[in-house]
Amino acid sequence: MNGLQKILLIYTGGTIGMKQDRETGTLVPFDFSQILSEVPELKKIVCRLDVHSFSPLIDSSDVNMEFWIELAGIIEKNYESYDGFVVLHGTDTMSYSASMLSFMLDDLEKPVVFTGSQLPIGKLRTDGRENLISSIEVAAAVRSDGHPMVPEVTVFFENILYRGNRTTKYNAENFRAFKSVNFPELAEAGIHIKYNVAQIRYPESWGHPLWVRKNLDNSLATVRLVPGMNRKMLKGICSVEGLRAVILETYGSGNAPTDSGFLEVIGELTSRGVIVLNVSQCPAGCVDMDAYATGRALKMAGVLGGYDSTVEAAVTKLYFLLGQFADNVSVKRYLCKNMRGEITIM
Ligand code: ASP
User: Fold this and answer.
1) Does the structural domain 5-212 have CATH classification 3.40.50.1170?
2) What does pTM read for this prediction?
3) pLDDT tens, 27-61?
4) Going by C-beta distance under 8 Å and a sequence separation of 6 or more, which residues neighbour residue 314?
């Protein structure tokens, strides 16, 4: 690690910084200064470490668009003064926040590493200490040419570094809480941290200013298909005023029912100009609307394929694009592009 690296630790809340409330026994956030006393090893790290604490600290179930704008704003304000950023965040919605920030931070050339823990840092068997220390190391790592090793928004958890917008929280119990099923790991921490350099996204040229895009629009509904879904309920959701996009969480390789009741609702949406994006409920694999007649019917109705996107990346990409463009035609154009490594286009 380069001794001159300056890292900003942004503490937003989550289990990593929680302790047990004496009266109720539930986990509640505590002041960040106590985290430093819980991890004395931090004082040994050979880089300058500063801390920015959110006020109030939040459980990540309370993450919303204002939170993302505030977080992106902190990075924007401190971008020139620091070499990397570590965001301590609850695990429940960490994949959403990491995905969102990957879109908001345009021309990012510095590491933004999200981490957290399954057990509070004060507990004996905590995973938080390891996650925190290794994340700082990743944020401070530089290549032999002096440029950052991982200039992306990432998630570090249980020895693995993932591209943030490829992650999903899949385990509420195990220390290995995240998975990136459709994209390889960016690094693995053992005795050394081994970087998968071929998979890391580097800018074509360095030295561009960071653009923080704070316009977001949540005029979006997500519909997870289930067999026997009540068509009236579906119609109700889809007729909400102001709706600009719907994410359909489909079966398998992007399949959905073929009855006229269902397809009429979808057809009405697309003919109104509402974007309908097909993302599979299957964590692994890719949407292919040509594979089955049930997928083809969606394609014919004007539904767009979401490739191998996670739901988290699809939701945040749409919030982002709807916020950037008032017309859905431009949104559609970018939706089909791989903007930040979030989808694989063959
Ligand atoms: N509920 C917590 C949160 O997401 C869980 C965690 O931190 O892991 O904020």
Assistant:
1) yes
2) 0.95
3) 777 677 666 777 888 888 888 889 899 998 888 99
4) 247, 277, 279, 306
